[in-house]
Structures
1.
Amino acid sequence: MNYLTIAEKDLRQRLRDKSFFVLGIVVPLALTLILSNLIPGDDTDFSTTLVVVDLDGAGTGEQLMGALSDSSLEVESAETREAAVDLINDGSANSGIVIPVGFSAATQSFSPAEIEVLGNPGAQISTLIAEAVASGLASEVETVQLAIAATGGADPLGTVDAVGQTPSPITLEEVAVGDRQLDFVTYMSIGMAIFFLFFTVQFGILSILEEQRDGTMARLLAAPLSPAELLVGKSLSSVTVGVVSMAVLVVGSTLVMGADWGNPAGVVILSLAGIFSAMGIGALLGTVAKTAEQANSYAAIVAITLGLLGGAFFPVAQASGALAALSRISPHSWLLRGFGDNTGSGHMRDVLIAAGVVVLTGLIPGAIALSRRDRMGVTT
Amino acid sequence: MAVLECRDLRKTFGDRDAVSGVSFFIDAEETYGLLGPNGAGKTTTISMVCGILKRDRGEVHINGQPLTTRSVDPKGMIGFVPQDLAIYPDLTARENLAFFGKLYGVRGVPLKKRVDEVLEIIGLTDRANDQTKEFSGGMKRRLNIGIGLLHKPELLVLDEPTVGVDPQSRNAILESVEVLSGEGMAVLYTTHYMEEAERLCDRVGIIDEGDVKAEGTRRDLVKMVGTNDKVLLEATGHLAPAAEAVRSVPGVVDSSTSDGTITVIARDAASALSDIMAVVATAGAAVKNVTVDEPDLESVFLHLTGRALRD
């Protein structure tokens, strides 16, 4: 039962020095809140209104409006170019396309024809969309012209119809977000939670070195308890801190920011795996460092490096090859992958695989640390 | 049966022998002092006695039970007070005592009662609920000792508990140890202060360079350098006749003069001093200053090692 006494004492100290509240709860929640509001995520609604001016009056404008009505663009028509410019200037529309007089006739006679795009410097994305639509229209016209030329000009109207009925070789579809994609708030919530989890848990396990610094380790070693009880007690306090921190962050980010952590069982498994990993890495750092201060510095450097590498702040896994490959050594990367599977339509099997890899990232350094435990003053 | 028995303790750090063959025992209700200068091997010996440090060779028995770094039961019989402060600054005095008390198996109502008792003994009852980071150095020292007492150990081990302590706190600590040894606890006390060893210890082991050079009661050890006292009289006037006259005083073994000082060797300076002074005055010498050198543990250490304790 001595391990419970040690864990209780450690927790009392952690609660009293406020570091647990700051690093374990306040900072991750605050950063998630700030970042998710600062950076627009992929769940932000985007809409643009395109105004079409059909000065040609020969059907091209009508066809264009009909085609665009099936898209997610809002389309309006204007009688004149000036009217379209006014709509853009007063914000009723974001960009426009002007089909000039004689456009259809020119295209059928293989003469040069121009489509004018009206843009707004303040709405560059909308202007790019208008340019894309105009390019698409030009391509369509070009296709018809090539088809007529290929048939030697025989039955040009029939050729136009045939081209019109031919399915476009390339279609754009609005598709559901992939399984491993997290919405931005959830991504930031998970990223911040696991990033700071490594701080809180590692600092807990490194308190063994603080016992040495403060002289209390000698007293603990002189007390009637085994080294195993001491290590279990220290580990228990770290696990408790990690579990409480994750629980508060999961509940807080869900209720306050609407984050979706997915299957609760998966959250528990991945959280425990993350805590185990942090403990193993922290223990190894404890055997490398010579002082408590040095150990805490190492822990901070490692937590930040692994966090950045693993994509706790931004999705490194989607970066170029070398960086993406390097990110796979980070437990954060596997935790994010696991949480992605847990929130999407991924199977529990995928979650368990990710959790297993995360456990390995703690097991290996933990085993090395255990073989070097005398360096932390825990003699046997 | 001895409460503590150490046999042939040895510990080497690199190529340096920190402790080389230390053996001693402590009986129940006995206070044993390890007296030696800094670096003599006192703390290393104590670390092995308490099971903190793995020894290279030798044996430690607590009430007949062998003790190693992995032992549990024998360690429970020892109360350890390390040389450096070993308390948690962000816990209160009561929490510090309760934590270590629990580790030694004291729990519940007995724990609360014992914590109150120890707070009373170390004079911290009114500061019991303050975090120890707010304490003065002396208060921390007292708490450091109190933690070692909490579980009423059969053997209390104190490693230089008065180092860096102000005279008032030092005296309070020494009084506490005297009280504890009077209550039947066996005490192992290390120090490099000769006065502390003389005041507190029933037996003393003189340790230097990792080896116990001699041990015994103060009387036994002093006998090693002789039993006579030396009285030095700084005087003016007729010194030679005065020195000659002093030899007739009962208890005086010898006398001589040099450089304005009459040196008198007496069996017991304290009882012969008044007669010596009267005879010197009658012989025509005026005494300006008197110094009495009694053989002490400092002399013993000097005799055994050729060095002073504080060298």
Note: The radius of gyration of chain A is 31 Å.
2.
Amino acid sequence: MNPRRLRATVLALALTIALAAWIWTAQPDHRVGAATPPPSAPVAVLPLPNPEPEQAREAVQAVALSEDDHAFLQQLRIRFAPVMGSQHARIRLLEQLIAYLKAHYPDGWEAQLRAMLNALFPELAEALLAQFHKLQSYTAWLELQRSTLQGLSPQQRRQALWAARLSAFGNDAEEIWAAERRSERLVDALAAVDTATGLTAQEKLGAYLAAIHDNYGDHADRFLEQRQTEIMNRFISLETVQAELQALPDAQRNALLGELRAQLGMGPEALQRWSSLDQSRDQTWASGQRYMQERARILAERPREQQEAELRELRSRHFSEEDAAIIRDEEAAGFYRYGRSRRIGRE
Amino acid sequence: MNKGLFLAATLATCCMVAPATARDANKTLYPIVFAHGMAGFNDILGYDYWGDDYGVFVLDPCDEWGEYYCNHDINAGQKSFVASVTPFQSSEVRGYELYQDILGYMASSGAQSINLVGHSQGGLDLRKAAKLLHTNKGRNVVKYGVSISSPHRGSPIAKHVWNLGPGVQSVVAALAEFYGDIVYGSGNDAYGGLKQLIHDDISSSDGVITGTKAFNTSYPASTTYIARPRSFLTAQQGSSMNPALYIVNEYFHNPDADGYATTDANGDGALGTGNGNPSDTDDDGLVGLNSQQMGYRLQWSECYGCLDYVYERTDTGYVSNLNAPPSIAMTSKKWVINQDHLDVVGVPPDTFDEMEFYAALTDYIADNGY
């Protein structure tokens, strides 16, 4: 059986198995109760398929390159020559080559690849071709294992993905997915500060910032400057940080928020804008809470036929005309923004 | 080291770490804010969603000496913000949360206006956020509002899952199949999220009015709120699709979603109808073509070896009233990107070059004044 047919057969078989597994494992919970995840069970992740057999590589026929091909290769050469030492850059180069070849040689793009690589970087062609086969192997594994991977916990999924990457690419995987690895470390650091006991919010943020500096090194300050709000949002959304903020009176809470933002490197102007936003949000939220109390009273005490008129009048007292219309639409859709727990620092 | 030698060494080292490019995307006047789709927010800062397949954020500028893991196609001064909202919720909830996130970002950055890019349900969320921002500031804050693969007029797959159609035994399990166990997280409402993506109010007896039809009336693609509403459309068919979407299309439900009607004429959960052929590349696995256009369509043109291009196209009409688009906006396949619903974000495996696509979009927004 030729390799292409073999791959197609394996893919079809795996899809059928995945389909059967999905149907078999689905639970009839339609429109009942709160959603709970199915119990986790040990899941076997299939090993990575072998890369393209050697004889299949040799069977590839080199094809003459067109003028367009050469022009494209020249662009790639300019773009990638300075960074070919990076394994990530090599994968990016291969991806761009594959996209070009699929568009220009849809029926024989793989056959063209060797010729393109030889013309592009002759001294690296074999290494790049080997990298291509590893990428193909990893991608095929990813497609076959998609359903299984989805069923894993985030930690298990991460382990399975890295095992497959390391199996396919060896230590190069660390370089190819370096950005993802860095993000994972920050996720872990954030989870660790959330559960750390005996630390104040400032100390927790300090620990998180230290993790950012460890991961980003010389680029940490720039990263913090660029992604200040995202980092802030993730940090103050932590359960333990929210609990600390919720427990404080308005003035102390806003002071703490200001300290955390300053700790993140926000300047005086940004802190002033945030202070104004905090005060505005506090006022809006307090008004919203009163609205919800009065709304509940109307619904409990007033005859049904009078409720809508009284609710309309209530909304007009608490909100501007535009806001009142939005609140009305939200409630019609079942959303009560002031009826849920406030996310301090986020609303 | 003398000055000349130092300069030469610096230049040589610089060339060793940063790829040269034929043309960088221009910097936008206002920051670009990203609004993710259903689920969407997995790991740190949303980078998994708005990243390439290797975890590099699509608008991370290469603005420091020696920086490599960044988008080499964008301007070093490009500003952006990644919003995060509850993964599974109605767009009433998510749009409100997006609005609050944007207020926070404006406080941090001092930005007075923004460009807003939303994928999938994020394209609905951005309309609500734009209206709330207008109400709060008393002026138009959102300049470009660009939706990508968004079910503005409903999704046949949402209705199929809701109805427990063939292959679906549980709403939550089906969503977990698409998106993973994130659906089970606290604060999520899988049913609310799904009802949002069905055009008509799904039930007259549940005490609430849901669906895109009502949402579109409340939060229109009005230039009062979004100076320039625009949209990318995606559609794909066959084995190039993401395996999850391929399975859905091949075995469970392949939407026929490129026909015009003023109602949900075929009852599939989306405004419009089909043309009798569900296999003619009229959906991207989750959303049909007739649901995706808002304002003018955008064309993405891939450029091999150089920065891609984005063009505004007017020949498929302009959708100002999302509940009553012109026929051509629901039926034309022009300028549709041949990718599935998940290709255009960082969900592997795919061959789509997210870095170049978002660089080209950035360039388009910048070149058009915002």
Note: The longest helix of chain B spans residues 91-109.
